[in-house]
Every structure is written in structure tokens, then in C-alpha cells.
Amino acid sequence: MENQPINKPIIYSGIQPTGIITIGNYIGAISNWLKLQDDYNSIYGIADLHALTVRQNPAEFRARAMSFFAQYLACGLDPAKSIIYFQSHVKEHTELAWILNCYTYIGEMTRMTQFKDKSAKHQDNINMGLLDYPVLMAADILLYQTALVPVGADQKQHLEIARDIANRFNNIYSPTFVVPEGYIAKQGAKIYSLQDPTSKMSKSDPDANAAVSIIEDADSIMRKFKRAVTDCETVVEYREDKPGVSNLLTIFSEMTGRTIEDIVNEYHDKGYATFKQAVGESVVERFRPIREEYNRLMNDKGYLMSVAKEGAEKAQRIAYKTIAKVKRKIGLTELK
Ligand code: TRP
User: Active-site residue 203, yes or no?
Assistant: First the structure.
């Protein structure tokens, strides 16, 4: 990254190591990130500190964070082009989050949709972290002078708050943070649940048949596609009143690069069983190289650790500059 021209805008995104990385995440987000790596200075964080806002089993959590990291790499995020690291390895995130807390109003946090949803879901654990989640996310973004943040609809409100905090700070002192914009991906089809094709495929769906992981074994993928909810017709057509079949068509098209029209022409009257079998196979084949690379990486923990370390060091070099500037501006005493 140091060798790249600094005038490339910075893109930052984070993913919480919870649930599974689904084929929906891949089609909707990761595949776009791969294309952005050459035109931007991209930074991707495993948002492990954010994941702590709900209770985690320590051993599972540690394993899942490393698994997510390996999956990022297996997908083709390239440590030579992008910074890929664990949020918790760069202490500046929590340091800046504390400072930004003092520039954020409680009312702004209590009205966040995600806070309300998660509080309702985890009533026995409405902790400070849950309330403070958007401030930590603002710190993630602002630390790197991020220009663009590719976010889904559910994170737009958090990005808006990050912008508000940045503007507030810049106005009180002087321009310190780049005010980030949302990056709306050009393509990236939306993939729906295989069990309820009117809701988005979720990485933490409690129904294991609803979502497919990018590293899932072939048998399990085939089983889930065979069970995918469709409708009581028999024709394969892309129609609003056929959300299940339309979702399968989208997936098939994304996996093979074929147009939906072309696929409909071939499968229109072949029946759902044949069609689902073909969709499942396209997913198995498309993710085979990623699955194999993932397995290889997970057998080389030393390599994964060295990439994580290098990522954290590169990230920290940027983060450190921002935090030093912030501390100076607000009047903290520098230790010289
Ligand atoms: N909150 C985001 C999510 O759940 C993950 C995230 C953490 C993030 N830090 C970020 C996304 C910074 C974009 C930028 O999806």
C-alpha cells in the first residue's frame, strides 16, 4: 500500500465475525470489493470489537474471526493491494472511539434503529457497547481519512452519524477528518433467503437452510438448493410474484455470467427439481476454488498470522497520524 499513489481515495469497510459469510455477501459486497482494489486504497477490517456487543463464546469467537480473515483472503482480497486486518489489533480504534464519545449525544445513539432492534433482541444484555456501537464504527471510518464506505441499507444510519460526528469535530476545531460518503455499488445483485425469498439472505439466520456459506461443502449446498422454497407452479420465470424462483435465477446468473433470459430459455419447462439441481451445481462450481484456497490457508496459520500482523502494522501507521492530530487539536498534552 505504501507504494501506491496517495491520491487514490480511501475505501473502508468492516465485517463483524458473526454468523457465516454467505453467497449473498459475496455477490452483493465482496465481489465488488475485489474490483475496487486497483482503483482505491482499500482497507478491510474484521470488526471483532463490534462483535463483542453481543455475548460470544471465546473459543468459537476466536476461531470464527480467523476463519473470516482466511475467507477474505481466499476470495481474492490481496494483502499486496489492500490492508486487511483485525480491528482489535489497532488500539487507535478504541482510543478514538472514547474521544468521539465526548462529541456524540446520548439522544443520537438511543434513536438508532439497530440499537432499538438489538436491545429488543438481547433484553438481558443491553450493554454500553450496544449503545456506543455507532461511535466505534465512526472511529473505524474516520481514523483512516476514509472517503468512501460501501454500506448496505442497514448501515446507512451509522454512516450518517459518522458524518455528523466528523462535521461537528471539524467545525469545533478545524478540518481534521475527511467526511465520508457512502459508496453505492454499481452492480451486486441482492440475494434472498432460500427459505423466505422475500427477506434478504442473512449471515446470522437461525434457520440453517436459509443461507449458504461460501465455504460450504458440496453436499450441503446441494441439499439446501433442493429444499429452496419456490411456489406451486412449475414454470421457471423471473416474475415479481415468484420470488423464490426469481432469486434462484439471480443466483444462477451471478454464478455463471449467463443472462437470466438465457437461463429461462433453457429451463422454462424442465421442472423445478432439474432447475434447482443446476443452480446448486453452479454454486458448488463457482465457489470450489475459494473453498480449496480457504482450506489451504486454514492449514497455514503461520501465514495467516503474518498477514494479519502486516495488516495491523500498515493500518496503525495511518491510524496513528490521525489520532496524534486529534489529540493535539483537543488540547491533550503531548509526551515529548
Ligand atoms: N457495522 C458494520 C456491519 O455490521 C460493520 C462495520 C464495522 C463497518 N465498522 C465498519 C462497516 C466501518 C463499514 C465501515 O455491517
Answer: yes
Which of 10, 11, 16 is the pocket-test mutation for ligand 1 (most atoms within 8 Å of CB)?
16
pLDDT digits (tens, 9 = 90+) for 34-56: 989 999 999 999 999 999 999 99
Measured CA angle at 28 (ends 221, 74), to 5 deg: 60
Query: Which CATH number does 218-295 carry?
Result: 1.10.240.10
Cβ within 8 Å of residue 190, ≥6 positions away: 24, 28, 200, 250
Report whether 318 contacts 143 (CB < 8 A). yes
H-run or E-run covering 15: strand 10-15
pTM for this prediction: 0.93
Report domain extents, the chain.
10-188+301-330, 218-295
Predicted confidence (pLDDT) per residue in 176-196, tens digit: 999 999 987 655 688 999 999
**In this structure, which topology does domain 10-188+301-330 adopt according to CATH?**
Rossmann fold (3.40.50)
Nearest to residue 128, comparing CAs of 115, 140, 147, 141? 115
Cα 209 to ligand 1 centroid, rounded to whole Å: 25
Q: Atom 7 (ligand 1): residue with closest C-alpha?
A: 14
CA distance 240 to 207: 24
